[in-house]
Structures are given as structure tokens and as C-alpha cells.
Amino acid sequence: xxxxxxxxxxxxxxxxxxxxxxxxxxxxxxxxxxxxxxxxxxxxxxxxxxxxxxxxxxxxxxxxxxxxxxxxxxxxxxxxxxxxxxxxxxxxxxxxxxxxxxxxxxxxxxxxxxxxxxxxxxxxxxxxxx
Length: 130
Known about the structure:
Layout: H1 5-12, H2 27-45, H3 51-69, H4 73-80, H5 85-105
Organism: Coemansia erecta
Keywords: Electron transport, Membrane, Mitochondrion, Mitochondrion inner membrane, Respiratory chain, Transport
Pfam families: ETC_C1_NDUFA5
């Protein structure tokens, strides 16, 4: 009897060990589809100049390349290093939802009112002391 690679991997992984997240036997193709949808949504809804779009595109392209280059789920999880493939699917779905919200919020536009003086000084690097 011959079994496909996806079925073989599914038989190896019985549980994710995470309550509410079952093993997904079709995870790789689903994840690829979500990454493609993420890139399409970004292009359609968020300006190229937005830092949010640039960041999400960079991460998504990097992860999509890994998923395209490797069929072994364990290797994909190891290289992306952000959880199990089922968690990566949840993350991608959440990002797609966030894209619509970011488009609605237009977070890349200037503030309606200028920020108070010294508001961002907390985030500056402290001066070196001797």
C-alpha cells in the first residue's frame, strides 16, 4: 500500500498538544494559499509606502519561500521558528483580518493633531554614561 507524503506526515503527528488546535493534514497548501492571499490583500488595500505593508510583505515573502521550498512540515516549522504549522495558519488568518482593519484605520496617515512635545523621547536610546 502506498501513502502520500501528506498522509504519512498526518499519521506521524497525532496531536498539536494545543487545546483547540487540531492537526491539519492539509496544512502546507493551506498556508501557501493564506500567504498568497495576504500579499494580494496588502497590494489591494495598503499603500506601498506604509511601513506596515513593507514589514508584513517581507515576513510573508520570507515564510512563503520556506513553505514553497520544503515539503516536510517539521522542517518548515523549524525554519520559520514561530510555532507549529497549525499555529502559522492561525497567524496568517489573523494577519489577513488585520490588513482590513489597518486599511480602515489608515494608520500610515499623519496624526490629526501633532504629538505632544517629548512624547517619543522614552523610546530614544539613553546617553552613554562613563
